[in-house]
């Protein structure tokens, strides 16, 4: 899949867009697209899934984090966030970070280390994929061994145990399944949002954080009525 990102301009538009607006009608084909076939969700029965397709190695996803936190806080009680790590940018270690994320999920430490991982890549440089001085792809790229040491420090899982889990066939299978699901949902880039495996939000049709929240809540309500 070709690497496409929400541009910094698009993110800035969301962040700086009008904070109040009149009631809107959200339209299929404009603010959201149908996902066909409908995808299986991972949240408990009775919950509506709001899925972010992302990568730790994606600078736009890092910039989107504050918006994600505001979105998460705005969800109704019957909606639940979920995350799916993409791997289609091999030059900046996305497959390695995907393996690391699914490993962390399997060990029950992904959620509490989520922001810390973004910070290690984009703030402190501990796991940087881009050289801050040259703005070029860093060589060598971070390794799964370095990530294992990060999780040992941040989440308390021994690096050796993390590496052993990362090599498990179940993680390989999860990565393959994620790649197929992302392609099936026609995700154009990261970050992307999918509601209940049925609706892919079109970021180009949305002008502010408030509009994004309204669209998500509108789609959650559609699924709640069913």
Summarize the structure.
The chain is of the alpha+beta class.
Keywords:
single chain; 226 residues; alpha+beta; Glutaredoxin; five-stranded mixed beta sheet; 8 helices; globular; disordered N terminus
Molecular structure report:
This protein is of the alpha+beta class. It has a single domain (31-72, 79-225), classed as Glutaredoxin (3-Layer(aba) Sandwich), CATH 3.40.30.10. 44% of the residues lie in helices and 11% in strands. It has helices at 8-16, 59-74, 94-106, 114-122, 144-155, 159-166, 169-184, 209-225; strands spanning 32-34, 48-54, 79-85, 192-195, 199-201. It has a five-stranded mixed sheet. A hairpin with a 3-residue loop joins strand 4 and strand 5 (199-201). The longest helix is centred in the C-terminal third of the chain and has 17 residues, at 209-225. The protein is globular. It starts with 7 loop residues before the first helix and ends with a helix.
In terms of topology, how is this protein built?
Layout: H1 8-16, E1 32-34, E2 48-54, H2 59-74, E3 79-85, H3 94-106, H4 114-122, H5 144-155, H6 159-166, H7 169-184, E4 192-195, E5 199-201, H8 209-225
Parallel strand pairs: 2-3
Antiparallel strand pairs: 1-5, 2-4, 4-5
